[in-house]
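Supplementary Methods S3. Complex input for the shikimate-3-phosphate-bound model.
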Amino acid sequence: MVEGATGGSRDKAAALQAALGSRSIVLIGMMGAGKSSVGRRLAARLGLDFVDADQEIEAAAGCTIPEIFERHGEAYFRAGERRVMARLMTNGPQVLAAGGGAWMSEETRRHIAASGISVWLKAEAEVLLRRVKRRNNRPLLAGDDAGQTLRRLLDERNPVYALADITVQSRDVSHEQVVEDIVAALTRRLGKAGNDDSKEDKG
Ligand code: S3P
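Predicted complex, serialized as structure tokens:
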């Protein structure tokens, strides 16, 4: 039974849950794309648990992400992120918000492909920049020119994010609208695949 949804919307959620089986829905994409806020709402909509990978990494490390970067550097953070993602991917079904760089690891992409369905929340640089400027919790953007860094990271990452199973545009619309776009895309995708766990190889 799916709480927080009514009528047809509840039926759609129940059908999606059944088609999903034990797979996780993994939200990927750049910092500021809305993975956590949309993910939390998507989980409530589908009656699934929501897990934020960044929070899990902080819990495992016993300190914040900026502290991990400062004390140990990015490579150490990435190694921890790979371990935490591998562990979390055994916990489906759930909605999992990945950190913006997690998908750049081939190992992590393999774990996600094996037991999840990946959803890229795609957003334009201007939208992302406006959002990330509201907080200073992202060490990669802590330098003088966050805009330039963000654009460089987008150039590097967008072709890899594009390997996701599903792409949804994260626009300046309500989170609820983005959630509905994801539900529609998942329904199309899982409807096609049915309960078959096999997926096209995205290499
Ligand atoms: C990062 C994104 C952050 C966090 C870390 C590195 C990245 O997560 O994992 O600061 O490399 O893009 P969010 O995407 O949730 O901000």
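DSSP finds nine helices and five strands in the chain. The beta strands are 24-28, 50-52, 95-97, 116-122, 166-169.
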